[in-house]
Amino acid sequence: VDANIVPIDGKEPGEQNLIVLLYDITEIRRLEKVRTDFVTNASHELKTPVTALKGFSETLLDGAMEDKEVLKQFLEIMLAESSRLDFLVNDILELSKLEQKQVPMNMQEVNLSEAVLATFQLVKQTADEKEMELNLLEEDTLFITVDNSRLKQILANLINNAVVYTQESGKVTVTIRKENDQAVILVSDNGIGIPEDEQDRIFERFYRVDKARSRNSGGTGLGLSIVKYLVENLNGSITIKSKLGLGTTFIVRLPIQPR
Ligand code: ADP
């Protein structure tokens, strides 16, 4: 709490009054902390691929490049680290644009099932490699007014996570239903799940339940923060239900016809 004390003259001669102003700055402090944490984490995350790129290129120049096999192997690692850097920078820029509300929403009528099926195509290869099933359960046929590319970004993030954080032969099911004037999209998997005490935190920037696993799977740790921003910018909400070892369901609610 911040306080200001202002002395003022009272009605009677010689009488002094004090006005004490108390400001609740909890929220301001929290937002400041979110911001500084973000800069610290972003720098740290960016440093990892940069350090790798520097190290591998130095080693190559120090003579390792004479060996054709080593050269190829190192270049492949450097390419992967560059992609990582690229994803990170893109996600960081995306978040900062979203924060400044610089994202124009291009609203149009979209068939929700078609959007889900189109998103399945993006993860089909990974799902096939892991012999996973992708199912769409259309309880209601829904046309919603939404920014189509933003909707696909939300779906792609959630469905990709469901595939990544589920073991081989697992199953991902997207259910679509209408509840009052809202479209409800449930993205369910029977994968590794998320411990109860971490479920609130996974929407935080860079928060990961298992850092190593997430990095290896190409994740930046920013996907769910972006999803949450997008859903909220579309006047919707997102919640999670998960049981460790059993699976996870993300529940997205979007207005069918935003005002
Ligand atoms: P990442 O790029 O690491 O996947 P996200 O913001 O998309 O970042 O997700 C944050 C973390 O939440 C992940 O690192 C993972 O630990 C956890 N998570 C997200 N989706 C799932 C899921 N379907 N099942 C289990 N854990 C998940």
TrEMBL record:
Domain Histidine kinase: 41-258
Cell compartments where the protein resides: Cell membrane
The protein's name in its UniProt record: histidine kinase
Organism field: Carnobacterium viridans
Taxon lineage: Bacteria, Bacillati, Bacillota, Bacilli, Lactobacillales
